[in-house]
């Protein structure tokens, strides 16, 4: 277990509390012994004084002579001395009781530590404290706009970074940059829905920032399988109103309108995108221009399907007999292709109710999540299928999965068979 200020403070606090409880337990024992000792001695002295006073009165009254008085006084003094020795003897007995009390004082913290180790110790809690100790300074640097060293970033775990950033934002809910960084972390982890929520917070805090508006719109388009929603359209128009030649916003608006069936809108933005792209690159024969020209031609024809440059992939999905009983009517199946060496986001996705298996679908450029990341652009891909219990594309424990199949595209429609045969742990 690695020490850090939080864990050290916890250990010291727990130790102090245990010692306090132990002291509360033994204090009555120690105090009772001392009080009993002093009360007996005081009583003996008081009795001696009364008897001596009576004896002196008897001498004054002539009831006893001088010799008898001296003898009786000597006897009283001897008795008092004898009684005074009894507390010391009692104290010698109390030493054993007091020693036991001190043993109890030490045993209580030990028993508390054993009970914590057996019943309450949570390694994940100590890990969380360690993560906070390592990650909070990094996040604070980022929020202050300071430059990080490469080794500082290399040590960071994406999931831990997102969790600590969420904790920071609970303390600083109006930190726009914090929400933006959290959204980017979610995107890297393929948590699109969570990224959209974080971008939404950042956009509400700083609606004038075009970088946030564009990233928010891009995430929404991605979550809508490349199509525009009223919100994503509004965000993109905000950017284009300020920067009419913003290539990224033109791409999202043009291709998003095309995939949404808004061909009139596509014919407004795609020609402008073509013009801006050629002006920036000086190349009118690039693959990007060819794809834009295809989309423009298809939009002019009312949305005839554009044949994917890579031919596409026909995927047949089956499930083993052992797992058929685990499929429910509320489950959702995702069939997708990713780049073998490239971004982790799917290049093409089909999402639908699980229905009856076997199932056959086709993956092509029209199902791409992002306009600039089409299936045909990546020669080597990995094809997979997942039955989700929650209905979300992110894999979760209990989902049913196939073994991914790598594939090299050859420009023609290819066949792939996937067998769902395992449960995600």
* SSE sequence, one letter per element: HHHHHHHHHHHHEHEEEEEEE
The best one-word shape is: elongated
Low-confidence stretches: 87-96, 304-310
Distance between the termini: 27 Å
Number of domains: 3
Mean pLDDT: 77
Please describe the biggest sheet, giving its number of strands, its sense, and whether it closes into a barrel.
8 strands, mixed
Helix fraction bin: 55-70%
Question: What class, by secondary structure content?
Answer: alpha+beta
How many separate helices? 13
How much is the radius of gyration in Å? 41 Å
Number of strands: 8
What percent of residues are in strands?
5-15%
A few lines on this structure:
The chain is 60% helix and 12% strand.
General description of the model:
The protein is an alpha+beta fold and 425 residues long. It folds into three domains: 5-121; 208-300, Serine Threonine Protein Phosphatase 5, Tetratricopeptide repeat, CATH 1.25.40; 313-423. Helix content is 60%, strand content 12%. The protein contains 13 helices and eight strands. It has helices at 5-60, 66-120, 123-143, 150-154, 158-171, 176-188, 192-205, 210-223, 230-242, 247-259, 263-281, 287-300, 321-324; strands spanning 313-319, 332-339, 348-353, 359-363, 380-388, 400-402, 405-408, 414-423. Strands 1, 2, 3, 4, 5, 6, 7 and 8 form an eight-stranded mixed β-sheet that branches. Strand 2 and strand 3 (348-353) form a beta hairpin. Helix 8 packs parallel to helix 10 (247-259) and helix 10 runs antiparallel to helix 11. The longest helix has 56 residues, at 5-60.
